[in-house]
Amino acid sequence: MVLIKYSIQTLGCKVNAYESEYLNQEMKKRGYISCKIDENPNIIIINTCSVTNKSDAKSRHLIKKARRLNPDAFIVACGCSVENKKEELKEIGANILVGDFNKSKIPDYIEKYKNEEYINLICNHSDIFEDMFIDTPESKTRAFVKIEDGCNNYCSYCIIPYLRGNIRSKDINEAYEEIRSLVNNGHKEIVLTGIHTGAYGKGLDYDLTDLIRKISKIDNLQRIRISSIEITELNEKFLNELKTNKKLVNHMHVPLQSGSDLILKKMNRRYDTKFFNEKINALRKVRPNINITTDLIVGFPYETDEEFSTTVDFIKKIGFTKIHTFPFSLRNGTKAETMKEHFVKDSVKKERVKKILELSDKLEETYYKKFLNKDLEIIVEAGNKGHSENYILVNLDKPMENATTCTARITDVHGTKVLGKVID
Fold first, then answer.
1. What pLDDT sits at residue 2?
2. Going by CATH, does the domain composed of 252-370 fall within 3.30.750.200?
3. By the number of CB atoms within 10 A of the CB, which of 81, 157, 318, 356 ranks highest?
């Protein structure tokens, strides 16, 4: 019997990570052997990203690298960069191009077309959620479950709605069964993820809160985490659930994108800073010590020094724990393309990113120091570290078995590094 090896390479978001995990599971079920990209795989699957120009560049580089390292391999490129740059990717080494729809069929495509030189299988988007079911993931700690795809917001800087299509959701009973299976296989924490996760159930007779309530009844599920939620989705129903549901973790990732009302309007973000501040206050009233992280774009068109300063002041006012910061990246075809005369210089964007990252480090350290000499429950991920339920990565004073739960007393904080002593 000839063993056929494969390698899966993933760029981008947690949705891509979930989809690649599914493909990994399905390839193994068919008898293929997983390996690294430099271990002579016969098949290479590259799940690309197109959220920024840099993401597209990384995707192109990875496809070229895969072909250079493995001249005879059968290469499948899929995902957002393939959707966005299909004409550019034709000539750089992939045998099959698959967009963001029908990714689940990639193992079938490989077996059907493995002797073909080039196949373009990019399809129009469907209003139906492309269902995947993972029951044998590699990790035994945190499991991601894709419950939603697509986005209807059309923020003026974002290309993703054009690539992923409109909002569609996984059936609530199918989501429950997948999560129950993952928990029965040893997972203690589930992360609900999507392109616009908080819009789960839109147009149906259930929503994200309903799903959370349903899966909370699963025995041995310790933590429920949401990958990201918009400020407009922190409604009364959700906040009431957060108040009473102990399985919902003490961490929310709430994208801000800008602390300037002018820039938020230009971004088409559908809220202003007053609304954002009021919702965060409501969130902290329910969970006083909650860890709130965010996303921020700097250097968006019209962002003067004054507008940037306003953003910095607002960030300090909110007191985020961590700020994931990105310089504005023009995506052709978006509304922001019409704002070219108001673009910010790259050198200015670079300086603003640096300033925000420095501020983020200070805010992160300040939050972590609140927990000095306090005990936190840790789910061990690798050797001697793991996350608390409020998403603090704790470096433990001794190795622990992967996927076990322990209690650690926080003994020291060095910048953004947190040390803990295992006490049981």
1. 59
2. yes
3. 81
Considering the domain 133-249 in this protein, what is its CATH number? 3.30.750.210
Instruction: Using the structure block, give the residue that is written with the tokens 């992967």.
Output: 402
CA atoms of 250 and 289, how far apart (whole Å)? 7
| Strand residues in 134-188 grouped as ranges (E) | 142-146, 148-149, 168-169
Question: Do residues 264 and 277 make contact, with C-beta atoms less than 8 angstroms apart?
Answer: no
CA 48 to CA 78: how far, in whole Å? 6
What are 54's two structure tokens? 């840099």
32, 4 contact by CB (below 8 A): yes
Backbone phi, then psi, for 70, in 5-degree steps? -135, 75
For range 361-368, the mean pLDDT: 98
Q: Residue with structure tokens 């921020």?
A: 296
**Which runs of E-coded beta strand occur in 307-360?**
322-327
pLDDT tens, position by position, 279-292:
999 999 999 999 99
* CATH number of this structure's domain 5-120: 3.40.50.2300
Indicate the pTM of the whole model: 0.94
Give dist(CA 103, CA 25) in Å, integer.
Answer: 13
Cβ atoms of 364 and 358 within 8 Å: the answer is no
> Which helix (H) or strand (E) element contains residue 80?
helix 80-84
Q: Is the pLDDT of residue 1 over 50?
A: no
d(CA 60, CA 40): 20
Please give the pLDDT value at position 90. Answer: 73
- Cβ–Cβ under 8 Å, residues 8 and 36: no
